[in-house]
């Protein structure tokens, strides 16, 4: 685990400054040197003093005294406080609160980018520090990732003499860092509060993307020209932070927001999220692990262990605010067993022993507190997952209920229409029967009259048949009897209502019901109902994020897409488009993966997914001779896995994700100057961005 970096003391370094005993060197610049020191009480300080081969000149002494006075005016929870100073000493010095925490630069370099919510939380702290500084008339002039330390209770802005009062007109870029300076500073103009806001925007862009907001080919002069012209290169900036950061990076100082407005914007972005001042709530685990390592080393230093005058010499001589990293110290000597024979230890030794014991107890309490916080975070995460699953389940049930209601309403409408049609046809048949009976009762009488009635009945039953000839009137009374019987049979049989005296079955056939009143029953054919998987696909909308991804074996990790917050660490894919009820086509040239579902009701849903890359994630790659071959970039693989799917050989870990260089040159995948790690890079997102990775 990495940690602090403390340089070795040399022959020209003092052993003490005022009441502070020097432990090691933190950094050195052109005008001063910064030491790590311990006071008589177990408290650490960063002590700054001037560099001078001979006596300190009056001009340098007055400048140093003015710097001390400016720093003492600042009182903010987000800055390092001045503890003590003596500008009139033979070697002037100023003791500043020492904060055992990594800088944002080191965190991004070693632990990758944090989520958007963490960027907002960090930005709010830095903006609050600028509100205090600018309220005192102080312009920092050098806001950058290396000048912001991050303990778990919130960021601290440090300056070590870089800041200057607004009425001290100093121009030039000798004290700044080109990639994080403002265009007016790069042109040699006056630094103002708006310059600090621009540098804040550049710093937050670096947090979110992992690089400064400019194309960089390694040439400092060309980079300076780009900065002076405001030629920004903002590809890869998360959509959630775009408006916030772009406003800070306005080329004209007058177009940038005021510090208080920036702070309000950052805080508004956190509305609705759980309230917590601890970084353990906002930061990813790899960040909190490095921060906690610094805390443990700080506790050890305050207890009296750690580097001394012979610490190693690898402090960065070019950056007073360089990341503070230390190598493991030599192991302790043999432990002396404490017995009553040593009860005569001196008061100083006893006090030191008791102090160590108290410090160990404090460390143990701190570890317990950290464990409790981690457990609470895990419970909170589990509760959120449970709530999300319950919400999705409720949505699926509600959608299924809506579909069921729609089907029931449609069936009811069909049954009602069928009943109305049956009633209408039955009424028409009865009307025809009554009309026929009435015609028989008033038909012609006398010779042939009875025969006419029989003929009329036959015509009603068989309208298209040839009329039956009339009976001979000489047949006598038997003809009347036969005619009467024929009328009775016709009235009972009712052949004209044959279509209505049969009930329509659900299969479309007919069944004779005799003389009973016609009845109607309707049972619709069974229609397919969408499954839970079908509904899960249709619930996905364009712009959603899902944790589902290629499983490396030609399939997906989930049977149905599992939606997550786009800021979540497991948001591996973003939905470029979601098309339901028709076949969709995805843009293969834009690296879109197609995920299609054919529902139980034959409805086709197509999701087009684009991979969300982030440093620290791993994927698999084939071998090409002794080198890296083709990669399955859509696959998310465990970085510590000891197996890969058949056909693959390497597990690759992403170290950088950034926009493609406009000139088409290969990216510089090195993590620091002199980095000899073998990296491989790929163009992604349709060729607009690149990722760097190394085999793990």
Automatic annotation (TrEMBL):
Residues 20-270 form the Protein kinase domain. It holds the Pfam family Pkinase. Residues 501-515 have a biased composition (Polar residues). Residues 347-431 have a biased composition (Basic and acidic residues). The keyword Amino-acid biosynthesis does not apply. ATP binds at residue 48. InterPro entries: Kinase-like_dom_sf (IPR011009), Prot_kinase_dom (IPR000719), Protein_kinase_ATP_BS (IPR017441), Ser/Thr_kinase_AS (IPR008271). Residues 434-444, 455-469, 516-534 have a biased composition (Low complexity). Keywords: ATP-binding, Kinase, Nucleotide-binding, Transferase. The keyword Nucleotide-binding applies. Residues 301-474, 501-534 are annotated as: Disordered. GO terms for molecular function: ATP binding; protein serine/threonine kinase activity. Residues 445-454 have a biased composition (Gly residues). It comes from the Bacteria. This is Protein kinase domain-containing protein.
